[in-house]
Amino acid sequence: MGTILHVLLGGTNVGILALAAAAVTVRLLAGKRWSSLASGADQIAYVATAVGLGLAILSGLTGFFGTWTREAITTTVLAQNKILVTMALLGSWGLFLFLRWRVGSALWDSPILSAWSAILVFIGSVNTVLVGSMGGSAALTGTILDPLFLALNINRYISLAWSPYLTGLLILVVIALTIYSMRLKPESE
Amino acid sequence: MLRKSAIILLLFFGLLATTFSITPVRAQEADDSLVWIPEELTTELKVKVAYNGQDILWLFEWPAERAYFYHDIVVYQDGGWVRYGASPVGSQEFGLYEDRLTFLVDPGTVQGFATQGCYAACHDQMRFLNDELDEATIAAHPLLGETMGRTDLRKYLADSRTGAEWWEAPWDEIKSPEELKALREAGVFLDFWHWRAHRGNPIGYADDQYVLEFRNNDGTRAAYATNWDSDAGQPRFMFDPDQVGFVALNWDRLNNFEYTQDDVYYLSTDNVVPFDPDHNWQEGDVIPRRFLQQPEGSQASITADGRWADGVWRLELRRAMDTGFPTTDHALIEGRTYNVGFAIHKNATGSRWHYISHPQKVGIGIPAAISAVRFNDAAPDWNAIPWTTLPMYYPGQITWDWLTSDAHPGAPEMRLDSRTCRDCHGEDSAAVWKMAQAAQHHELHEGRLSANWWLTLIGGFVFLFGGTIVALNLAKYKEV
Fold first, then answer.
1. Could you give the CA distance from residue B275 to residue B232 in angstroms, rounded to a whole number?
2. What is the band of B277 on the pLDDT scale with cuts at 50, 70, 90?
3. Cβ A178–B469 below 8 Å, yes or no?
4. Residue B307 confidence (pLDDT) above 90
5. What's the mean pLDDT in B350-361?
6. pTM for the whole thing?
7. Which of B250, B261, B327, B305 lies closest to B57 in space, CA to CA?
8. What Cα–Cα distance (Å) separates residue B57 from each residue in B51, B201, B316, B319?
9. How many angstroms separate the CA of residue A180 from the nearest CA in chain B?
10. Which residues, other chains included, contact B359 with Cβ-Cβ below 8 Å and sequence gap of 6+?
11. Average pLDDT, chain B
């Protein structure tokens, strides 16, 4: 039962998040020329992200508690990788939703915020696809991405973790940028 | 708002960390001194089988960059004999461990073998696994230690144990000798064909063993014995100079692999004399610590001819289809199918550092994954029989007990004996490469989340969260 629910929720959230990604793309392309299209795409992106994210959280919970045994989920590499990618999915879509909620539709008027939103949605979409594909591997049905992973020499049965040097460097750069940006004062102040 | 988000994120991380930290993981304090992983995780084995109603012949070929047929020696150093080539962890550093080809045969009597193959004989706490038992524990066991004189744990079957479920196989809960005898008489054992490049091949034999409560010899006299007098602290035999022109091999020549298969590099009954401690021994003199002899009884059933050339081992094994030893050998009968699991050792490795195949169906004169072809002449025309190529992979420290435990997602099917390894994981070379990669990871981490996993998770969130803060701040700066 848990597995069926997980598969249903997983499939649905992938579809809805795909809709959100498409809506974001349309919003970015529409710009100010097609204002009604841009406005509609913005609304769809907002709602679809909220619903898709909620379903993704439910899917994650049913996957964690309702499919394999706890020991298998926490000790097999495929499941560990799936959890890692799920975290990235939730984080990126969640932050996009947070930005849209906090800034409103004015989000798209700022080149920096709209660019960063596009990056978040792209990362979220890639991870959504990866999570779904790993689910196929876990269910032993295979996925249409298998030939691609094989061609790229990516093995989801070993740890997909980044190099610690890369991660360390990334953390340092982001922290430095964050501190720098927080110290910036608006010109008018 | 950002502060609230940060608090929510921290709570989320805390919950995740708590979930993992309270989850029991296996062998947290594993001894990693036994962790060794070959650079080459997969290889292949080619097989042909033929029979004439009397004998069955197997022909094998497998790639091996170098042949290792030196094995276990003593070297004269600083006035004494020093041993090199005991069973090593991984590759023996001087190449002093022989190559091997082995296979287990099941006529369908061993539960779990048709689906899981060689894993049916591989269990937790066996020698050279991270959780291996110490010698004293084995020696104190009433059957393994006190009766059989063993000090390590080797292959055995769940059928030989008294677990509550058929797949449960606690190492020390062994059935009574009467029950084991009854099992053997009923054919519940694995027939173990065991070819060794040094201990048997030079005199034309492969070892013949069987697996039930342990990996046992079929008879009382194998094709080799130990050439070492423990009381005197010296070899029992040396080369006969009248026969071979020298009393010992040379360490430098051995190290440079100068002795070929056509040279005398092994001791056997035909080329030895009793060891002479008063001989003028020179630094670097080498005497093999194993001594080859004519095997007897059931243990002399398999003849062997293995040659290495141009990066390939080619081996032919021959045995009577029915050896007449039904409690140690399975008769191979025309028209029947057998489950067979193959393994090869190469690159001077021993014990568990081998490559294994999925279990295969071998049909004697009938269609199967590997079909034995009937021949009527003295020898088969091997050129007329096609090869079957098997992908082989390094299995790491995966055991029967792990496969049937809750840690293995496929355990429910394993316990039902309803699915094979290949059903879930596939069988082509790419599939077994994935399995070997997973086994490698399992051996290195034993299911634990690596520090790198956590670092990646944290790094990813720092990137996403930090990037969002930067974007918000920059947007505010630009837009005001």
1. 11
2. very high
3. yes
4. yes
5. 96
6. 0.83
7. B305
8. 6, 16, 7, 7
9. 8
10. B113, B114, B115, B116, B117, B118, B339, B340, B341, B420, B421
11. 92
ipTM tops the 0.95 cut: no
Interface test with B, best of A77, A92, A127, A175 (most B CBs within 10 A): A77
* Residue A119: both structure tokens together: 């990056």
Contact call for B409 and A174, based on CB within 8 A: no
**Yes or no, beta carbons of A162 and B459 under 8 Å apart:** yes
Residue B86 has pLDDT above 70, yes or no: yes
d(C-alpha B473, C-alpha A186), whole Å: 9
Please answer yes or no on whether B407 and A75 come within 8 Å at the CB atom: yes
Q: For residue B159, which of B480, B400, B410 has the smallest C-alpha distance?
A: B400
In this model, does residue B366 exceed pLDDT 80?
Answer: yes
Task: Give the per-residue pLDDT at B231.
Answer: 95
Q: Give the per-residue pLDDT at B28.
A: 37
Contact between A84 and B26 using a beta-carbon 8 Å cutoff: no
* Cβ-Cβ contacts under 8 Å, B25 against chain A: 71, 74-75
Picking from B413, B444, B468 by the largest number of A CB atoms within 10 A of its own CB, the best residue to mutate is B468
pLDDT at B213 (0 to 100): 97
What phi and psi values does residue B63 have, to the nearest 5 degrees? -75, 140
CB B294 within 8 A of CB B269: yes
CA angle B168, B126, B132 (to 5 degrees): 115
pLDDT in tens, B397-432: 999 999 999 989 889 999 999 999 998 888 888 788
User: What distance in Å separates the CA atoms of residue B450 and residue B37, rounded to the nearest whole number?
Assistant: 18
CA distance A18 to chain B (A): 20
Chain B closest CA to A168's CA: distance in Å? Answer: 7
Residue/partner pairs of A63-66 with CB below 8 Å, 24 or more apart: A63/A6, A63/A10, A63/A135, A65/A2, A66/A1, A66/A2, A66/A3, A66/A5, A66/A6
Alpha helices in B109-266 (DSSP H): 113-116, 135-139, 177-185, 241-244, 251-255
A177–B470 C-beta distance less than 8 A? yes
